């Protein structure tokens, strides 16, 4: 089992499974598309890889700059303070045309969740922010300026909130919202949440769905994921490995569909429809089934409970996407 320092502020989910999926050999060039607190990167470095790590969070990049591998000649850790959808351009600037592996851990890190001033969680009160990239408009900007229909759409699409219109109406009526506590209180009141029921354990806090939805919207996470998958496909050499860990059904669905399409796993005909006659070569093969954390890992790290890993191997087939084009 790959060791993680006791003092690590973030416990990487499915770490051993990701390392195994990438099958890293000494000298491999690997991209950690979501550096965070560096849990995956540390394991890749320990396996002998050179790692190019991406993160648009300046706090994560600043922490990584103290790692000794950044000062080796040549450096075995290269930090890129930019979005992982830009990895093709970044690697071209570094003079690298192809890589041996790409790992993507989608969503917010435990490090960000635990910092109240980042505004990702409602467990502690903080400014209503939720940005990974602080150059973007924040959650307060959206909730305090968007119209009711736009807010309802975001809550329904990204949080699967069935009562999105009721919540959106309550948000507009309660403006301005300034803190995570403000937003959570409005959502709970709109949905009639009673956490201290005498009829059994407290139900799941309904603010979870709305916080997730606004966070995904503010950071453009699903579009970023689509662009990142295309970028990874372009960069992986023949035989290179992709490993994607997601924490939400919408994200996992997007990854699964992308890989199935790229592997021609959806291309067959049926007795009702004719088979495709001009099938393009598969760009990925060896698609894994959904890999989920063990019960032991969930006990160690409860935030791992919703994680899903999907992995695949790149073939020599050319990518049909031109630069900057998403799936």
Q: How many distinct domains?
A: 2
CATH topology of the largest domain: Rossmann fold
Corresponding CATH superfamily of the largest domain: Vaccinia Virus protein VP39
Q: Helix/strand-derived class?
A: alpha/beta
Main sheet overview: 7 strands, mixed
What is the number of helices?
13
Please tell me the CATH architecture of the largest domain by its name: 3-Layer(aba) Sandwich
Descriptive account of the structure:
The chain is α/β, with parallel strands linked by helices. It has two domains: 15-111 and 222-314, Rossmann fold, CATH 3.40.50; 114-220, DNA polymerase, domain 1 (Orthogonal Bundle), CATH 1.10.150.170. The chain has 13 helices and seven strands. The chain has helices spanning 15-22, 39-46, 58-64, 87-93, 110-113, 139-145, 148-159, 164-174, 180-190, 207-219, 221-235, 249-262, 295-300; strands at 29-32, 50-54, 77-80, 99-105, 236-246, 284-285, 308-314. A seven-stranded mixed beta sheet has the order 3-2-1-4-5-7-6, sandwiched between helices. Helix 3 (58-64) links the parallel strand 2 and strand 3. Helix 7 (148-159) crosses helix 8 (164-174) and helix 8 packs across helix 9. The longest helix is centred in the C-terminal third of the chain and has 15 residues, at 221-235. The chain is globular and about 55 Å long.
Helix-strand blueprint:
Elements lengths: L14 H8 L6 E4 L6 H8 L3 E5 L3 H7 L12 E4 L6 H7 L5 E7 L4 H4 L25 H7 L2 H12 L4 H11 L5 H11 L16 H13 L1 H15 E11 L2 H14 L21 E2 L9 H6 L7 E7 L13
Parallel strand pairs: 1-2, 1-4, 2-3, 4-5
Antiparallel strand pairs: 5-7, 6-7
């Amino acid at each position: 089992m790959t060791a993680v320092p006791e003092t690590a502020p973030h416990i990487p989910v499915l770490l051993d499974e990701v390392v195994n999926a990438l099958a890293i050999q000494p000298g491999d060039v690997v991209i950690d598309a979501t550096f965070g607190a560096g849990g995956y990167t540390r394991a890749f470095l320990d396996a002998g890889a050179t790692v190019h790590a991406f993160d648009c969070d300046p706090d994560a990049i600043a922490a990584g700059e103290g790692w000794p591998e950044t000062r080796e000649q040549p450096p075995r850790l290269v930090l890129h303070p930019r979005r992982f959808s830009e990895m093709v351009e970044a690697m071209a600037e570094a003079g690298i045309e192809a890589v041996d592996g790409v790992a993507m851990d989608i969503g917010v890190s435990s490090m960000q969740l635990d910092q109240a001033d980042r505004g990702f969680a409602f467990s502690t009160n903080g400014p209503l922010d939720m940005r990974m990239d602080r150059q973007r408009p924040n959650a307060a900007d959206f909730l305090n300026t968007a119209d009711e229909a736009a807010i309802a759409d975001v809550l329904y699409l990204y949080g699967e909130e069935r009562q999105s219109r009721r919540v959106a109406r309550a948000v507009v009526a309660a403006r301005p919202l300034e803190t995570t506590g403000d937003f959570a209180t409005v959502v709970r009141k709109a949905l009639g949440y009673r956490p201290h029921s005498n009829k059994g354990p407290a139900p799941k806090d309904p603010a979870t769905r709305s916080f997730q939805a606004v966070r995904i919207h503010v950071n453009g996470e699903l579009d970023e994921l689509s662009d990142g998958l295309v970028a990874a496909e372009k960069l992986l050499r023949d035989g290179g490995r992709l490993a994607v860990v997601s924490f939400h059904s919408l994200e996992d669905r997007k990854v699964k569909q992308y890989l199935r399409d790229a592997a021609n796993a959806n291309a067959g005909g049926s007795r009702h429809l004719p088979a495709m006659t001009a099938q393009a070569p598969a760009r990925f093969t060896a698609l894994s089934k959904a890999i989920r954390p063990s019960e032991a890992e969930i006990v160690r790290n409860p935030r791992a409970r919703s994680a899903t890993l999907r992995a695949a191997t790149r073939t020599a087939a050319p990518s049909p996407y031109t630069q900057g084009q998403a799936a």
